[in-house]
Amino acid sequence: MTSSDSPTVTLGSTGLQVSELCIGTSALGDMPDTYGYDVPEERAHATVRAIFDSSINFLDTARSYGFGRSEERVGAVIRERGGLPEGFVLSTKADRDLDTNTFDTAQVRRSVEQSMEALGLDRLQLVHLHDPEYCDLDEIIRPGGAIDTLFAIRDEGLIDHVGLA
User: Fold this and answer.
1) Which residues contact 157 (CB under 8 A, 6 or more apart)?
2) 48 to 54, 68, 98, 120, 124: CA distances (angstroms)
3) pTM (2 d.p.)
4) 65 an active-site residue?
5) Which phi and psi angles does 159 have, rounded to 5°?
6) Which of 35, 37, 65, 134 is flagged as catalytic?
7) How far is residue 96's CA from residue 128's CA, in Å, rounded to a whole number?
């Protein structure tokens, strides 16, 4: 079964056609303190392969999941396959600095660049501003702040769509 075999819905106003189920990959980042179990690298790769081979065409990850391991593991399978499967939608997130909770322009750009590198992609389909409630709201919403920076990166052509998670 391929992702094109599953009924899809339009994701908001993006025009992206996604399966009704999105698979989150935080556990694939090997976060035993959060989930109570380990996820070895090969198990994570096998899981991503199974997702890519299923009728589900929507996967979500983030820089902060396992301190980057989730994106790295998803990216390893993307590279192994020579790119994302046709029709597949990958969502990731721009994350704050987890040590300082800083979410300024530099951090947004750094997070997006790290995501692109880990995933092995030169463009990201959907990037959410992640967990802003842990940060200084003024830093996020001020002119030239995190939100403006994320939209600027979109306008530069590195991101197709922007969201909030």
Assistant:
1) 123
2) 10, 15, 25, 15, 18
3) 0.92
4) yes
5) -130, 140
6) 65
7) 12
